[in-house]
UniProtKB/TrEMBL annotation:
The lineage of its organism: Bacteria, Bacillati, Actinomycetota, Actinomycetes, Micromonosporales. The chain crosses the membrane at residues 7-27, 47-68, 80-103, 123-146, 158-182, 188-209. It comes from the Bacteria. The keyword Isomerase does not apply. It comes from Paractinoplanes tereljensis. The keyword Amino-acid biosynthesis does not apply. InterPro entries: DUF4386. Keywords: Membrane, Transmembrane, Transmembrane helix. This is DUF4386 domain-containing protein.
Length: 223
């Protein structure tokens, strides 16, 4: 049961995260969004989806922690911690955009230049929270959970191998972004994130439709 719940929640993370790429465009396309340019409704829906995304992330950690703990307590605690931290940073990003919407709604009578500067600051907070929460934390998630899944054989080993290969690639990309070698939305950044996305998507589908594979580890977990 835990496997199928975790699988459904992993797939939910994709359903709630991908649309925000479009829903947040009004903030990115309009430098004066805080003054009333662009659609606030679109951004509001994006915030709601990211709250659901954070809850789904936390849910995967809760569902898989007991399974991972029986294989490696260290890896299980590491996965739980990084996944919950990821959820917290997603909420931080959502709160920053919620504050931006509040500024926009209450902008009457305020200095426009100050409002625009505050809006850019809040968007920068979102971008920073995204880089650490939705890009760096998945590296740790893949390292901890991927090692457990590979060693236990609860899922086909090719699935965690993709995650374990993708983790250092995404880490290198995150460091490059941090030092300004390219932007977060650069094609190279998207390419570096593909293996981790593939690992999580494949894991979600497998757990939802297949559950855990029969194995010596699975037998011990069922006792």
């Amino acid at each position: 049961m835990n496997a199928r719940i975790a699988g459904a929640l992993y797939l939910l993370t994709f359903l709630t995260s991908i649309p925000t790429l479009v829903l947040y465009q009004p903030v990115r396309d309009n430098a004066d969004f805080v003054l009333g340019a662009g659609s606030a409704t679109s951004v509001t829906w994006g915030i709601l989806l990211e709250v659901l995304l954070a809850l789904a992330c936390a849910g995967t950690a809760v569902a898989l922690f007991p399974i991972a703990k029986r294989r490696s307590e260290t890896a299980a605690v590491g996965f739980l911690s990084s996944r919950l931290l990821e959820a917290g940073l997603i909420l931080l990003g959502a709160v920053s955009l919620l504050a931006l919407l509040t500024l926009r709604r209450d902008a009457a009578g305020a200095d426009p230049a100050s409002l625009v500067a505050a809006g850019h600051t809040l968007l920068a907070v979102y971008d920073g929270a995204f880089l650490v929460g939705q890009s760096l934390m998945p590296v740790l998630n893949a390292a901890f959970l991927g090692s457990v899944m590979y060693q236990s054989g609860l899922v086909p080993r090719v699935i965690p191998v993709v995650g374990l290969i993708g983790a250092p690639l995404l880490l290198a990309s995150d460091v490059a972004i941090l030092f300004g070698l390219y932007e977060r939305d650069a094609p190279l950044a998207a390419l570096a994130a593909l293996p981790i996305a593939a690992w999580e998507l494949a894991l979600g589908f497998y757990l939802l439709f297949k559950g855990f594979r029969p194995s010596p580890m699975a037998s011990r977990l069922s006792r």
